[in-house]
Design goal:
CATH superfamily of the largest domain: Phosphoenolpyruvate-binding domains
Oligomer: single chain
Number of helices: 11
Distance between the termini: 49 Å
Number of strands: 8
Structural class: alpha/beta
Number of domains: 2
Order of helices and strands: HEHEHHEHEHEHHEHEEHH
Radius of gyration: 20 Å
Helix content: 40-55%
Strand content: 5-15%
Length: about 270
């Protein structure tokens, strides 16, 4: 029996840890609204990430940087209302934790109090160590995020694979051990070589969740809009599309338009 299939009514940090130790893969997807979150939760997803990717797929921004703390809390509130089983993790947006640990703690407390979420996620390693520690001291679970960190896109200048060079790979190893040591309950590894992700996953006690990091991490995450094909132009190697909703919804809309124009909708059985 799956760790999350019936033994636990709610997925928690303890359940996620147990899944790693039992060798059971963790499935995580993004959610930003009530309706989609309800579908994903009832389907049995383990973790729902209220990602700052909402800046891209919901608001149409080029990067994740513009989304605000207030907007992240709004999306998180919508998701939490829909969820009965999955763990809800919320991205701390750019500017809400990088400047100092006091601001970071205030931001994390606002997310937890105002949304009802179960954990926060932060990008970076040693650079944000003090902020992570302060948040953890307040009793708030933290998921780390290493590798390609989209909030630092203007520093990197590209969305290409990270940690291919020895120096960056070594820093990632050290940061992963740091996040494990200071008490993060899990970490995302984004767009790094599969062999490095395997090495890191085996070197830390906490679960690793990969996106573009190969099959040896303890779990996987995708942006739901990419996974179900609502987005059209984003086609990275790591993305597997399970539906093509862009085409399906477009075709359905065209049929609706045709039925309205032809006076076929509504028919006699569809009115009072």
């Amino acid at each position: 029996m799956s760790v999350t299939s019936g033994e636990f009514k709610r997925v928690t940090t303890h359940v996620i840890q147990a899944m790693k130790h039992r060798g059971e893969k963790i499935a995580m997807l993004t959610a930003y609204d009530f309706s989609m979150a309800r579908i994903l939760d009832e389907a049995g997803i383990d973790i729902l990430l209220v990602g700052d990717s909402a800046s891209n797929v919901m608001a149409g921004h080029e990067t994740t940087l513009p989304i605000t703390l207030d907007q992240m809390i709004y999306h998180a509130q919508s998701v939490v209302r829909a969820v009965h089983r999955a763990m809800v993790v919320v991205d701390m947006p750019f500017g809400s934790y990088q400047s100092n640990s006091e601001i970071a703690l205030k931001s994390a407390i606002r997310i937890m109090k105002e949304s009802g979420a179960h954990a926060v996620k932060m990008e970076g390693g040693s650079e944000v160590e003090e902020s992570i520690k302060r948040i953890l001291m307040a009793g708030i679970p933290v998921m780390g995020h290493l590798g390609l960190t989209p909030q630092s896109i203007y520093k990197f200048g590209t969305y290409t694979v990270r940690a291919k060079e020895d120096a960056e790979a070594q820093k990632l190893r050290e940061d992963a051990k740091l996040l494990d040591h200071i008490g993060c309950f899990a970490m995302v590894l984004e767009k790094i070589p599969a062999q490095l992700a395997k090495e890191v996953s085996e070197s830390v006690d906490i679960p690793t969740i990969g996106i573009g990091a190969g099959g040896h991490t303890d779990g996987q995450v995708l942006v739901t809009h990419d996974m179900v094909g609502i987005t059209k132009d984003f086609k990275p190697r790591f993305l597997r599309r399970y539906l093509d909703l862009f085409e399906s919804i477009g075709e359905a809309t065209q049929r609706y338009i045709d039925d309205v124009k032809s006076r076929d909708f509504p028919n006699e059985s569809e009115q009072y």
